[in-house]
Automatic annotation (TrEMBL):
Belongs to the RRP7 family. InterPro entries: Nucleotide-bd_a/b_plait_sf (IPR012677), RBD_domain_sf (IPR035979), RRM_dom (IPR000504), RRP7 (IPR040446), RRP7_C (IPR024326). This is RRM domain-containing protein. SUPFAM superfamilies: RNA-binding domain, RBD. GO terms for molecular function: RNA binding. Transmembrane segments: none annotated. Residues 182-196 have a biased composition (Basic and acidic residues). CDD domains: RRP7_Rrp7A. Residues 178-198 are annotated as: Disordered.
């Protein structure tokens, strides 16, 4: 069977299995780009278009198994395909240039499903995908335990016991990341002086607060005393009939 060509692509009929009578055409050519891409290197990469939805990486390895070892297969959805029918494109990277040239000279492709690497489709594929989506409780619990152990260890390493003085300064104690490291004497003296000044300032502030409170109480007492005196004066004026409010 001789493959046809169109716009630089060679056309190959791709069968699902050896017993399958129908096939699907795919288009292949060497992948060349101006910029270097480590994942899709020039001279080693085969570009394949119009790959059917049921094809997998294992299936493409079956199709090109006669040309040489494959390093990687990058299977992508076709971005320009707006039909949503699941057709894909692939970049097949071979280990050497000879394998790529041999792939371009092929006359036909192997079926994508073989006895060694069968490709599951239909109900069998859906069941497998569903089972893969179910989380294993033991594996999940082990993953959670590992994560929490790392989290607790990180917190333990970063934990520092801190105190704040009255001015908002943070005093770091010796139980931080390096508990064996003691402070210098000059630093200790500065911290002690600052703590003593803060204590005196607090005491002075409290004294002023007490003085203001006492002053307010005295004013209230004086006002009440004057009010009572005024009431008594008004009462005496009423009794003497000399009260003239107007």
């Amino acid at each position: 069977m001789t493959s046809e060509s169109i716009q630089g692509f060679k056309i190959f009929p791709l069968m699902f299995s050896a017993n399958c009578t129908s096939c699907h055409n795919v288009f292949i050519k060497e992948h060349t780009v101006r910029t270097h891409d480590e994942q899709k290197p020039s001279g080693l990469t085969l570009f394949v278009l119009n790959i059917p939805p049921y094809a997998t990486e294992a299936g493409l390895k079956n199709a090109f198994s006669n040309v040489g070892k494959i390093k990687r297969i990058i299977l992508e959805d076709t971005a320009e395909d707006q039909r949503g029918d699941g057709f894909k494109r692939a970049f097949i990277v071979f280990n050497n240039r000879e394998s790529l040239l041999k792939a371009l000279k092929l006359q036909k492709l192997n079926p994508i499903s073989s006895d060694i690497r069968p490709v599951k489709v239909g109900l069998e594929k859906w069941i497998e995908e569903y089972n893969k989506g179910i989380c294993n409780p033991e594996e999940l619990q082990e993953e959670i335990n590992t994560f929490m152990a790392k989290y607790d260890e990180g917190n333990q390493n970063q934990k520092e016991e801190t105190l704040e003085d009255e001015e908002g300064w943070t005093l770091v104690t010796k139980t931080g990341r390096r508990p064996g490291l003691s402070r210098k004497e000059s630093l200790e003296n500065k911290l002690n002086d600052k703590s003593q000044k803060a204590t005196k300032k607090k005491e002075l502030k409290n004294f002023y607060t007490f003085q203001i409170r006492e002053s307010k109480m005295k004013n209230i007492v004086d006002l009440r005393k004057k009010f009572e005196e005024a009431k008594q004066k008004v009462q005496l004026m009423k009794q003497a009939r000399k009260f003239k409010p107007y």
